[in-house]
Design brief:
By secondary structure, the chain is mostly helical. The protein has helices at 2-22, 25-28, 30-59, 66-75, 80-107, 112-132, 135-152, 162-187, 193-217, 228-234, 251-277, 279-300, 305-309, 315-333, 344-361, 367-391, 409-433, 438-452, 458-483, 490-506, 514-527, 538-562, 567-587, 596-616, 623-648, 654-665, 674-689, 692-695, 700-718, 720-723, 748-753. Helices cover 74% and strands 0% of the residues. The chain starts with a helix and ends with a helix.
């Protein structure tokens, strides 16, 4: 009977295998099916918005009805808050751009070359500002640049019609914005509170990340009390190859850290968008930003210098075991779905652990024990502050520190120069060759270069933007030749637009094809000559397609050939900026108060950009070493803050305080001679340890100061190539020491070989 049952199931199993091979994974994988449905729902909302917006544009007899469709494609976003924010900034940028367009046209109506020069300057400034600003505020600056050209292009033949052109453009934008907002707010689920749940999940993941590390560090003394998961993850931990190397963390810790940092990066805009859609979130946005910044700082604080400082002493493992048990308790408490509404048990657990560590610190221990105690105590304090920021229901306090925005001037100047150069070049091409569709060339060049200025790497994104636009040319040809002549009513026009725009709308949020799909969808509508009534002119259409092809080539040439990006140079500047920030922090007068969360948040922005630049570098470079070195520089800043507090508030005797001041001043040569800085810190630690205040017994303040100095020296000696101004990343790509690790002084390996 079993054989019969087995025989009856074999055909079904064979059929199931056959269907699995035939049917795409999208339809039998729940995750892919859910993503498919979400993308389909978004595309449906976009097409409904396009249908209504273009119909109203025809009804209002606007000069360019498809401008409303272009606005829908640009404004639409799956997140309602993002769509609202984008819409507001689009209207603001359009207003300013229209006003500037009227002003420039009236000033240089009889001087085309001066007009192109003025336009190039404004576009360059707009691209610079767009590089500085965050999220859709940058989009407002972008709009200022290319709205000038879009408004002015119909009026180049008749300058006196510039005001009517500006009003027509503004009307089309407003129609597209209002329709998109109406459709998406009616049909989209609005759940701003989901951002809080995601932040709560980020807090829990951060606790788990720290727990895995401390569980592994205590494995040699507390095998029975720790879950096997942490031990299994780290049982193949790499051993230190030599005393001077910068130790590596196990691969699972790196993978977990990268995943968490990516998740945190996605939460930053989610907070902004939720605040645009919910007054309660708007009131708490400052606290939530601080919580996210503190959690990110906690994640990056676990890097190889923790392992570099560890010795064979077993006493440090007791601290890690105690920390792991406390973090395990936090994970148990956060399993309750309502823990965000009642954070008191979590806060009590953190405070109890802090008291236990403080009691342990008052006993006589070695320097390694104080290192472990100070670092774990700092972690718990930051975790408690992050918990408070995350769960506080009160509006932001007026005196709460704000995290400043990092302004990357080299990248902004490069994007501004690109925008100005390509605008002036396109204008002169039109002027010199008397190009009949010169305005179309100028419109695309300015719009594309402005949009690219908001990309992480404009040079890398420009070919994808040009490719998407180039693919829109044959699509436009097919639409004009096969579809539009057979249309005899608006419903067919709408369905035709949806059919040709479907690839661009569907792939717009795909990580690999997003920029190209965006260029295809937006500039496809620009190339369509759909007016009321539609007039077909084969020569004009052919000229339009040739113009767009030339514009795509010009875009790629300027961004990739004339002014290419040097990602290694950008990364080197960020490394130098991190080093200078550490120096400035150490040399700031003691009386000046430093908001640690603001300083840390600024450095985290630099580190995020550095990691991105390192991923773009194709030549040999110690990417992992520089990433860990950047995190270690952040930990060095934490130590400096502790030392500054000890120098200003702690009960140090005058001699020890003067020694500490000299040690902080030694950071002034960190960029030129990191080894000398580390030597000065070690000498200061020895001098304070031998000070008279230590002879009478235990002086916890002196011991903690000595511990911080030793930690700082150890970090610097572990990665001297990171801090040195002639480190490997500052070298030319073909230099023999360009791929040296950060764990050696520049030139050390070459001397050893010789």
């Amino acid at each position: 009977m079993h054989d019969q049952a087995r025989g009856s199931t074999q055909p079904w199993q064979a059929l199931n295998r056959l269907l699995t091979r035939i049917i795409p994974a999208t339809f039998h994988d729940p995750a892919q099916w859910s993503a498919f449905l979400a993308t389909g729902a978004y595309a449906g909302r976009v097409f409904l918005s396009i249908g209504i917006a273009v119909f109203l544009a025809f009804l209002f007899q606007l000069q360019s009805p498809l401008s409303a469709a272009t606005t829908v494609l640009i404004v639409a976003n799956p997140t309602v808050g993002a769509m609202v924010s984008k819409s507001v900034w689009r209207v603001a940028g359009t207003l300013l751009g229209a006003a500037l367009s009227v002003t420039i046209m009236s000033a240089f109506v009889q001087a085309p070359v001066l007009y192109f020069a003025a336009l190039a300057v404004i576009v360059g400034i707009a691209c610079m500002i767009a590089t500085f600003l965050r999220l859709f505020r940058a989009y407002a600056a972008v709009l200022v640049g290319y709205t000038i050209v879009i408004v002015a292009s119909p009026a180049f033949a008749k300058p006196e019609g510039i005001f009517l052109s500006a009003m027509g453009r503004l009307s089309a934008v407003c129609v597209g914005v209002v329709v998109t907002a109406f459709v998406f707010m009616i049909t989209s689920p609005r759940k701003p509170s989901s951002v809080l749940l995601r932040l709560g999940s980020a807090f829990r993941d951060t606790v788990r990340h720290a727990w895995i590390f401390h569980a592994a560090e205590s494995e040699r003394t507390a095998h029975g009390t720790l879950a096997e998961t942490a031990l299994d993850l780290l049982e193949k931990r790499e051993e230190q190859s030599n005393a001077g190397s910068f130790r590596s963390l196990p691969r699972p810790v790196y993978d977990s850290r990268a995943k968490l940092l990516s998740y945190m990066a996605g939460l930053a805009p989610a907070i902004e968008y939720a605040a645009a859609d919910d007054p309660d979130m708007q009131a708490r946005i400052g606290n939530l930003r601080l919580a996210l910044s503190r959690l990110t700082g906690l994640i990056v604080s676990y890097h190889p210098y923790w392992l570099t400082l560890e010795t064979a002493e077993q006493e440090t493992h007791t601290v890690h075991d105690h920390m792991a048990q406390s973090l395990e308790r936090l994970l148990e408490l956060t399993e309750d779905p309502a823990w965000l509404d009642n954070p008191a048990p979590l806060s009590a657990c953190l405070h109890d652990t802090l008291k236990a560590l403080e009691h342990l610190a008052r006993e006589r221990h070695g320097s390694a024990m104080l290192v472990a105690l100070d670092n774990t105590r700092d972690t718990l304090v930051q975790m408690d502050l992050a918990l408070h920021n995350l769960t506080s229901r009160r509006p932001d306090a007026a005196g709460a520190p704000a995290v400043p925005t990092y302004l990357e001037w080299p990248m902004a100047l490069r994007n501004g120069t690109r925008g100005a150069m390509i605008t002036l070049l396109a204008g002169l091409l039109w002027y010199v060759f008397h190009w009949s569709l010169g305005p179309m060339l100028l419109v695309y060049i300015v719009a594309a270069s402005s949009l690219l200025s908001t990309a992480p790497s404009a040079a890398k994104a420009s070919p994808m933007m040009a490719t998407g636009t180039a693919l829109a040319i044959p699509a436009g040809f097919l639409c004009h030749m096969l579809a539009l002549p057979r249309i005899d009513g608006y419903p067919l026009l709408w369905l035709t637009l949806c059919l040709f725009l479907l690839p661009g709308v569907w792939l717009q949020f795909h990580p690999r094809y997003g920029i190209g799909a965006f260029g295809y969808a937006v500039f496809f509508t620009m190339m369509l000559s759909v007016n009321n009534p539609i007039v077909y002119d084969d020569m004009t259409l052919t000229n339009t397609w040739i113009t767009m092809a030339a514009a795509c080539a010009l875009l790629a040439v300027v961004f990739r050939v004339i002014l290419p990006a040097d990602h290694k140079l950008d990364a080197a500047r960020l490394v130098s900026s991190l080093t200078h920030s550490v120096q400035q922090l150490a040399r700031t007068p003691r009386k000046r108060t430093i908001a640690w969360v603001a300083w840390e948040g600024l450095q985290l922005q630099k580190i995020s950009r550095l990691m991105m630049r390192l991923s773009f570098i194709t030549t040999g470079v110690d990417r992992q070493g520089y990433t860990d070195g950047a995190f270690a520089a952040l930990s060095l800043g934490r130590l400096i803050v502790r030392l500054r507090w000890n120098a200003a508030h702690a009960t140090l005797d005058p001699q020890a305080r003067a020694t500490l001041d000299r040690a902080l001043a030694a950071f002034g040569q960190l960029h030129r001679n990191p080894t000398a800085t580390a030597t000065a810190l070690m000498q200061a630690a020895d001098a304070i340890a031998a000070s008279p205040s230590q002879k009478g017994g235990i002086n916890l303040t002196c011991e903690r100061t000595v511990s911080c100095l030793e930690q700082a020296a150890s970090i610097i000696l572990a990665i001297p190539g990171f801090f040195h101004h002639k480190g490997p990343i500052q070298r030319a790509a073909d230099a023999p020491d360009a791929a040296d690790p950060v764990s050696v002084m520049p030139g050390t390996l070459r001397l050893a070989v010789k």
